[in-house]
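tl;dr need the bound structure. longer version: we got a ligand (coproporphyrinogen III) that a collaborator sent over and nobodys looked at where it sits. i said id run it. heres the input, straight from their email, havent touched it
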Amino acid sequence: MACRRMPTKYTPIWLMRQAGRYMKEYRSLRRKYSFLEMCKTPELAAEVTLLPVEQLEVDAAIIFSDILIPLEPMGIEFEFAAQEGPVFRHPIREMKQIQVLRTFQPEEGLPFLMEAIRIVRRALDGKMPLIGFSGAPFTLASYIIEGGHSRDYILTKGFMYQNRAAWDALMNKLCEVVIQYLNAQVRAGVQALQLFDSWAGCLSPYDYEEYVLPYSKRVIDGADKSVPLIHFATSSATLLKLMKRAGGEVIGVDWRVDLGAAWAQLGYDVAVQGNLDPVVLLSSPEVIEKEAKRILSGAEGRPGHIFNLGHGILPHTPVDHVVRLIETVHQCSAR
Ligand code: CP3
């Protein structure tokens, strides 16, 4: 409803990474299973998806998975190394590696995800919407090319600037996979989509427009229009108008922008999601309340604001602070 800018009884809230290491139930499951095992076992993925639904008064669930999950059926291997995050042993740096990347039917390549979505939908029984997601082509390309997380994106940008044909080939392949992957999640039952272009903020507006926007636009145009799509990036203050041009019913913004100013700049014909600094959740309940109210006042009670963090919740976040945030948002936005 809020994604479509329809009035709601209060501002809805969910949190990126709402099922994760800050929860003791998650940590105890992680002692028994690896992160990828959890993603690939439908019953476990469903159980983790439902943890925040049971413990917090969130207004949406997001399926437990990862943006890197569709890379494996493409023929790209990676692992999650302790403390380091994802590591790709064979990063992609030339055309002939791109030509052999596979596209696939998600129902065949990722049956566990589709099953997890069906289990969660049954358990939620219409109580709240379930969000599916994908990484956007640029953010996925950055992992594949760098071989993991990066600070300066030197290899990704070098590839983009110096090997235009290979960049186009890689982005085309990712577009095809991402569209299939999003639409299969809709067929399995998700009721909204989020496209994570988490690292697009490393680009100038010129480079975003030239090397990223056409591909993100193709993905969003190709996504099933029966559900709304949230288009999210971080450090995106200078990219907001361009992201809107690429598409999405909702633009997700991080805490580096003033929500009210960002919305005014985007125009009120699009919804917005955000944008509490996740670090605020590590402070005191008083600060959390003050910051939440400041963000709500920036939205001025207009329909089409979905409250969220500006990026994923941090592992050391106290659960009672999250509860306090959700209460504050619900109470202070009640209309
Ligand atoms: O939001 C949710 O609760 C749904 C689940 C979800 C995860 N990852 C679970 C996860 C979602 C939507 C993601 C998206 C994701 N994954 C992004 C985009 C969002 C963002 O943060 O910008 C990115 C860039 C990734 C890639 C990724 N996955 C990294 C870099 C890491 C390691 C860093 C870290 O936080 O540990 C992961 C691992 C990961 N994905 C964890 C979780 C709960 C932690 C795994 C663990 O238990 O050790």
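gonna send this back to them w/ a short note. Residues 7 and 192 are 17 Å apart (CA to CA).
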